[in-house]
Design goal:
It comes from Rhizobium ruizarguesonis. This protein is of the alpha+beta class. It is built from four helices and seven strands; from the N terminus they run E-H-H-E-E-E-H-E-H-E-E. It has one domain: Aminopeptidase (3-Layer(aba) Sandwich). 26% of the residues are buried.
Amino acid sequence: MDDALTEPEIVALTADPMQAAAEIRRVALWQRLRCLPDVHTPEEEKQYWRMHLLPNCSILGAAMGNRLVGVIAYGDNWIEQLYVLPDFQGNGIGSLLLGCAKEEMDEIRLWTFQRNVGARAFYQRHGFTAEVETDGADNEEREPDVLYHWRRLPERTPGLQPSYG
C-alpha cells in the first residue's frame, strides 16, 4: 500500500529516534528555504533534540510503517519544532501533529521565517495570527521571522445568551 494513502500513526518519541527527528527538520526546512545558512552540523542538531528538546518538550512523531515522516516538539504554550518530510506534506500529517498540541494547550506561540510562505499559510489556516515580524537579528540564521499566536476560544454554554450591558 502507498504510504501517502495510509493514515499515519502518532507516537510519543524517546531518545532513540532523535536523529531521525533532527533529519526531518533539516530536510524539510532546507527543501523550503534553500538559501538559509547551515548554522549547525547534523550531529549538533541531533544533540539539540536529545539534550534540549527531549527533556523540555513533548515530542510526537508521525510514522508511516517503520518510517518517521513528521515530528512536533511543544510545551509551555510554544511549538518549538513542527516539520513533515517534503514528500509527505499536503496529506494532513502536519494538521494531525498540530492538533495534538492544540488538545493539550489553550494558547500557542511559535516562530517561522517570513519567507516560509507554506508554513505561514498552514498556520493561518489553523487559526494562528501573526503578532510580530522581526528583521531576524535575534535568530541564528539572521533571517526575518514572524511570531504567530493561537488561542482556544471559550466554549459557549448551551442555552445561555450573551450579556450586553
